[in-house]
Design goal:
The complex is a heterotrimer of chains A (about 260), B (about 250) and C (about 350). By secondary structure, chain B is an all-alpha fold. In chain B, about 80% of the residues lie in helices and about 0% in strands. In chain B, helix 1 crosses helix 6, helix 2 packs across helix 7 and helix 6 packs across helix 8. In chain C, a hairpin with a 2-residue loop joins strand 13 and strand 14. In chain C, helix 3 packs across helix 4 and helix 4 packs antiparallel against helix 5. Classes of the chains: A mainly alpha (about 260), B mainly alpha (about 250), C alpha/beta (about 350).
Chain lengths: ~260, ~250, ~350
């Protein structure tokens, strides 16, 4: 079945190419030191500001640490497809499209999951973080859902990058938005109303909230609403990004901008 | 030599100012840090605390710029193709490299302007300096001190394979340990001595005291002292660097 | 900016009416690299890039260093510009040891390489030159006039305030040369300066190089354009596999193959067996094959004259043959012969 092949082989190959990090010198700092340092920084900032508990920041920043590779990975995946000129071909059928996206997203989701687990584990030692075992399954679901919707954001960045623009500025804006507006480090309630509205349509916002509630003792069924919202956000981003890509492809055929596809 | 240092700083400052990536880093990120601090420390907080947070955000941006810029300094020059030309020059390599790393710190002026403007426009934080003249001295002292630490980073980190990534990892730890937004008193006791040898600690204190009141001169003195220490240490690493490049040829110059 | 002291050694070879003093003296120079291969099991290999080469370049001479890629040209230049230390042997520029008196050497040399790197793109040509003038210690008094002079000389007047990123490749190369001349060095090292330039730009650059020689500068030029070396250089050294295989004037080098006739044959689909057969033909000194689009061009060097063609045609019977030319040898043929021997 073609789409299965696209899903697994395509996904894994691009993932391997992107993360050709057999070199521990790159792997270590980027996937281990940096996310952990970020987490510890915000936890201490929270302590200094007498803002929230350590748990609050651990969840927020672990989710971000898990989500970022998903964003970059999918964005790079789109760029990679464009390089090998298979993008147009892969966007031809809905099944292919879905398989393409999921194929790209899955390895990054797994990657993100591992990072999150590592961050949680380290936090139990470094900070005041003591999760109950019962919370772990629910937490895992929340991580997966959030990483998925962040991968969808990566699709959008990838689409943007197809226009030949440098995506660095956009990457920065996305990261800033995650750190500031998703409730990862600042309670959304402190923001003015319109900012809160923006937060609610961002990925991570609902997933993080669900994660915190689960750790506070809520059951998974209780948080289903939040988890489904997170997934929905992801699906909306995915479909709109796929549409955008389709439009870009049509435009490139019309204007003969072969560069794009 | 003085001419080279001053003119070199000017040239590299312009080169960085025209880089959109660096300008984004000097405007967007300080806004993030300042906004975070404002909301975390609460709207009812003392305006002094908030102003201090704005300064903290500035020095955070400078540190970020210096860690990435310096760990990548040799790499960047290699990419431009200018590294060979600079090494083959009849001046000490430190005189060529120091302006480059100090320049990465000096674009912090954009961060300062951005945070003060943002704080004033969006959150109504007034810009009021207790010792304006000392502030004008404190700022370049801080920039030079952090830039010299960048020089030390640039010359030592280059022996590591993925120097760039290692440099990026210094960002958050640096912010924490030097008490830019998080007071060092909140951290474990063993962190304190480490903060004393790092330039941002003294740069931050100098700026804070000059802006909010307090004895600034000792802090400015400390900035100069650490700058000299870094320069001395950098001499050793540069010698090692030259050995790698010229003798063993393991450090590519082009 | 004149030179205060200037230790020169007498050149070892007699002159062509040039100064007898050696500006660049290389004795038994060797440079090797240790490189590792593989990720899991790292094997350490010793690569000898340059093996015991000798060069003696006189003041005011335009000397060419010719060789295929990987022959050791770039390594030699890097040793002479003090970017690399010799593994063994010695090199002196204007009497100063490149290993121990690097700073003295650096003040007196200019280093120019081809391509469009080596400049700060976001700055103007003027700023670039201003910066490098400080780096190369041009005295403050003469800095401004020197920059203006050089901008005029390389034909960038009027565009010196624009950012380098807007420049064409030829303009960048000219700016690069200007940069190399800022401190008025008596010795210049030009590493493939015309590479990637359009024919007009390249020709202009060659004229500039020739005029620099007229001005009395000592120039060491590396190139793999034969006609360039032939036209510009007083003497040439051919380097292959890290060793100098021949040194002499272009005329002397051509003389090594002067008694040869070069026969060029266009063949379509020649097998290697066929080529071997040609090699075995009596009187054939060497056979080289160049692939061109549909055909191959077989270059045969022979001490016999055009009468060999008939013998060759007999050997080629059965293959599809196009054009057959018999001609005098050029410097390129000498080069192929010398490099092939190494």
């Amino acid at each position: 079945m073609n789409w299965l092949r696209v899903f697994f082989v395509g996904g894994l190959t691009s993932y391997r190419a992107l993360f050709a990090w057999l070199n521990p010198w790159v792997f270590g700092p980027t996937l281990i030191i940096y996310p952990l340092a970020q987490l510890v920084f915000y936890a201490y900032l929270g302590r200094a500001a007498h803002a929230e508990s350590d748990t609050y920041f651990v969840v927020g920043d672990a989710f971000i640490a898990a989500a970022l590779p998903a964003v970059w990975g999918t964005a790079q995946g789109v760029a990679g497809e464009r390089r090998t000129q298979t993008l147009g071909m892969l966007l031809s059928s809905p099944a292919s499209r879905l398989a393409l996206f999921l194929g790209r997203a899955l390895p990054t989701i797994v990657n993100g999951f591992v990072i999150a687990v590592f961050c949680f584990a380290a936090s139990t030692v470094l900070l005041n973080f003591h999760p109950s075992a019962a919370a772990l399954p629910g937490l895992s679901i929340a991580i997966v859902a959030s990483t998925f919707s962040c991968a969808a954001v990566g699709l959008w960045i990838g689409a943007f990058g197809l226009r030949g623009r440098s995506t660095t500025a956009l990457n920065n804006v996305v990261l800033v938005a995650f750190l500031l507006l998703t409730g990862a480090n600042v309670p959304i309630s402190r923001f003015p109303g319109w900012v809160q509205t923006v937060s609610s349509v961002l990925p991570l916002t609902h997933g993080i909230k669900a994660g915190r509630e689960i750790l506070a003792g809520a059951s998974v069924s209780h948080t289903t609403g939040l988890l489904l919202t997170e997934l929905a956000v992801g699906i909306v981003y995915t479909t709109t990004a796929a549409l955008a890509l389709k439009l870009l492809e049509a435009e490139s055929r019309r204007t003969a901008s072969l560069e794009t596809f | 030599m003085i001419r080279l240092l001053v003119n070199g700083l000017r040239i590299h400052f312009i080169q960085l100012s025209r880089s959109s990536n660096d300008i984004v880093a000097m405007t967007l990120w300080p806004i993030l840090y300042a906004t975070l601090a404002y909301y975390l420390f609460g709207a009812h907080s003392n305006p002094r605390v908030l102003f201090s947070a704005s300064l903290g955000a500035t020095v955070m941006a400078i540190w970020g710029s210096v860690t990435t810029g310096s760990s990548g300094a040799l790499d960047n020059q290699r990419r431009y193709g200018t590294l060979e030309l600079l090494v083959a020059a009849p001046v000490p390599f430190m005189a060529v490299l120091a302006p480059i790393t100090i320049a990465t710190a000096s674009i912090g002026i954009y961060a300062l302007a951005t945070t003060l403007l943002w704080g004033w426009l969006v959150f109504g934080i007034p810009v009021h300096l207790a010792h304006p003249l000392l502030f004008v001295v404190a700022l370049p002292s801080a920039v030079i001190a952090i830039g010299m630490l960048g020089l030390l980073i640039a010359t030592t980190i280059v022996v590591y394979r993925a120097a760039n990534f290692l440099g990026n990892s210094l960002e958050y730890p640096g912010w924490l340990v030097t008490g830019l937004l998080v007071p060092v008193s909140v951290l474990p006791a063993w962190v304190q001595p480490i903060s004393w040898v790092l330039a941002p600690t003294w740069g931050m204190r100098a700026l804070r005291h000059a802006a909010l009141g307090g004895s600034t001169l000792p802090d400015i003195g400390a900035c100069l002292a650490v700058s000299l220490i870094y320069a001395g240490l950098a001499l050793f690493s540069i010698r090692g660097l030259e050995r790698l490049a010229r003798r063993r040829a393991t450090l590519a110059l082009s | 900016m004149g030179l205060r002291r200037h230790r020169l050694k007498p050149a070892r070879t007699a002159g062509l009416g040039l100064s007898a003093l050696a500006a660049i003296e290389v004795e038994s120079l060797s440079r090797s690299y240790r490189s590792g291969t593989g990720v899991v099991r790292r094997r350490r290999l010793l690569v000898e890039a340059v093996r015991e080469i000798d060069l003696s370049i006189r003041e005011g001479e335009l000397f060419g260093l010719l060789g295929p890629n990987g022959a050791g040209k770039t390594t030699t230049i890097k040793v002479l510009t003090t970017l690399l230390l010799p593994s063994s042997g010695s090199a002196h520029v204007l009497g100063f040891d490149v290993a121990r008196e690097a700073r003295e050497v650096r003040r007196r040399i200019g280093y120019v390489f081809g391509g469009d790197r080596g400049l700060y793109d976001r700055l103007s040509a003027f700023d670039n030159l201003s910066y490098f003038a400080d780096v190369y210690r041009v005295p403050l008094r003469s800095k401004r006039t020197r920059i203006d002079e050089l901008i005029e000389m390389v034909g960038l007047k009027g565009r010196e305030r624009e950012r380098v990123e807007t420049y064409s490749r030829g303009m960048r190369q000219r700016l690069h040369i200007a940069r190399g001349l800022l401190h008025d060095p008596p010795v210049l090292f030009l590493d493939e300066p015309t590479i990637g330039l359009d024919p007009v730009g390249a020709r202009d650059l060659r004229q500039t190089i020739a005029s620099l020689k007229e001005a009395g500068k000592t120039i060491l030029l590396t190139t793999h354009y034969m006609f360039e070396a032939d036209a510009l250089c007083d003497r040439i050294a051919v380097i292959a596999g890290g060793r100098i295989v021949a040194t002499g004037t272009p005329a002397e080098l051509k003389a090594t193959v002067a008694d040869r006739t070069i026969i060029e044959i266009d063949v379509y689909g020649a097998s290697s067996a066929l080529i071997d057969r040609l090699r075995d033909v009596d009187g054939v000194a060497s056979v080289a094959v160049e692939a061109r689009e549909q055909a191959q061009v077989i270059l045969i060097q022979s001490s016999r004259g055009p009468e060999l063609v008939q013998t060759l045609m007999r050997e080629l019977d059965g293959a599809t043959v196009g054009r057959v030319v018999s001609r005098e040898p050029t410097l390129e043929d000498a080069y192929i012969e010398l490099v092939g021997r190494a």
